[in-house]
Amino acid sequence: MFKKTAVGIALLLAACFFCAPASLAASDEEVKALIQEIKALKKRVGELEKKLGEACEVGEASREKALEAAAAAETARQMAEEARQNAKQAFDEARVATTRSVKASRDVEVAGKEPPGMVSELGKRLAIHGQVQVEASYEKREPKSGRASNKSDLNLSTAEIFFEGKINEYTRGVLHFLWEEGKTEPVDMDEAFVLIGQTGDMPYYAMAGRIYPAVGLFESYLISDTIAKNLFETQESAVEAGYAGSWFNFSLGAYSGALQESNQGEDTLINSYYSRLQLMNPEGSLGGLSLAGGVAYTNNLGDAGGLRENIPGERVADLVAGLSFSLAAEYGKFNFLGEYISALDDFKSGELEFADGQKARPSAYNLELAYTPLDKWTFALRYEGGSDLFALEPERQWGGGVNWSFLPDTILSLEYLRGDYANDDARDLFTTQLTVVY
Predict the structure, then answer these.
(1) 162 and 201 in contact (C-beta within 8 Å)?
(2) Residue 84 covered by a domain
(3) Are residue 149 and residue 280 in the same domain, yes or no?
(4) CA gap 97, 91 in Å, rounded
(5) Is the dihedral of CA 386, 421, 360, 222 positive or negative?
(6) What is the pLDDT of residue 5?
(7) Residue 324 contacts residue 295 (beta carbons within 8 Å)
(8) What is the pLDDT at residue 73?
(9) Which helix (H) or strand (E) holds 19?
(10) Domain that holds residue 23
(11) How many CB atoms lie within 10 A of CB 120?
């Protein structure tokens, strides 16, 4: 701009010089003075242009530095958020490890749940995770009459590993190997299934393979499995279809149960089906309160492991249906678990070995309250029981425990349970457990 102004002044002066009458012409000294002023003005314009260019360069450099600083700040924010998420995931995994009962095929019903574990370098398609648990226990059994008995044990209670492969955007495959001392020797293929769907943009899913049909909740903050799980947990090769959304989940499945009706002879049929509906609120929709309530139905409750192993020949006159209700709540540092499962009809006399030749309609319930004052400590109380359990499981049982994550992914747990049986026997059970999650 300064340069154009100077050139205009020079042209104007030149025009005046050449076009004005001779009487008005400036002297040589005036012309020389004007030329000097023009030169000075051009020099000044040049200096201003130079400074302007330098200022622009400095501004551009500052802008680039500002952008770099902003990018660095965003990267730091993302790293902090990732660290927070990793810490939360590690804590959640440790807490899940204390419940012992969560299975991969049940996790499908949890909308948006991502598998924990480490990702391999095989195209980042394979997630691996698991746990190892070592237990020591002491049990004192006091019969209604006679001498009390004592038993103690130390064993590797659980060693398991999950392999989850992401085949494509909508297909996953899961292998779950489990070893439990005295139960699964050698290593057992606990779960193996293919899952299609159940993603962020496709909540519908289909699952097929060896799974745990979702008939009960079976979670706990204590070491020992609940009475409900001991009796009613079911494991079969099944096909399941469902919807896992933010507010509700629904599933429907079928399988050929090991427990069949006597009138079929040696024939086996796809005779069992189940369905489950779960309602929950998305995170943050109720402030700090999270709720999940569910109801499930099966037409063949007797196929559950704890019952079927007590049915001679795995045959009954008629299949017995079952119904379950569950509720899980979390608010701040408190967690609540509640569950009730019952047969809807009687097993006939002699069908259940533990029923002493009587007809029975077994049921079980579990109530737990957990408090986590610090990330590394969880204290829990349990009250559970059931009906028509005879001497198989306590009719009422209560107790408590504590879980301490004294190292990352390493939990030390201690519990005490007092059980009273329908035949007036009593049991005191002390258990400690060391769990490593990987």
Answers:
(1) no
(2) no
(3) yes
(4) 10
(5) positive
(6) 45
(7) yes
(8) 59
(9) helix 2-19
(10) 2-73
(11) 13
CB 315 within 8 A of CB 261: yes
* Unique residue bearing structure tokens 């590993």: 161
Distance CA 192, CA 91 (A): 26
DSSP state, residue 280: E
Give residues with Cβ within 8 angstroms of 348, minimum separation 6.
316, 317, 318, 359
Calpha distance 214→100 (Å, rounded): 16
Q: Is 409 exposed, middle or buried (0-12, 13-18, 19+ CB in 10 A)?
A: middle
Tokens of 348: 């006939």
**Which pTM value belongs to this model?**
0.76
Output the CA–CA distances (angstroms, integers) from residue 6 to 13, 19, 32, 209, in the order listed: 11, 20, 16, 88
The 10s digit of each residue's pLDDT in 115-163 is 454 444 454 688 899 999 999 999 999 998 889 999 999 999 999 999 9
Domain boundary among the residues 53, 73, 93 is at 73
Q: How far apart are CA 365 and CA 337, in angstroms?
A: 11
Q: Are 356 and 268 contained in the same domain? A: yes
Question: Are residues 372 and 244 part of one domain?
Answer: yes
Residues 7 and 142 in one domain: no
For residue 285, the model assigns a pLDDT of 86
pLDDT digits (tens, 9 = 90+) for 393-407: 999 999 999 999 999
Please state, in angstroms and rounded to a whole number, the distance separating the CA atoms of residues 38 and 36. Answer: 5
Query: Do residues 393 and 364 make contact, with C-beta atoms less than 8 angstroms apart?
Result: yes
DSSP state of 352: S
Structure tokens at 177: 């190997």
Within the chain, which residues score under 50 in pLDDT? 1-26, 80, 83-84, 86-88, 90-99, 112, 115, 117-121, 123
207 and 283 share a domain? yes
Provide the 3-class DSSP secondary structure of residue 81.
Answer: helix
pLDDT digits (tens, 9 = 90+) for 88-123: 454 444 444 444 556 888 777 655 455 454 444 454
Angle made by CA atoms 280, 286, 289, in degrees to the nearest 5: 75
The enclosing H or E element of 36 equals: helix 28-99
**For the chain, how many structural domains are there in total?**
2
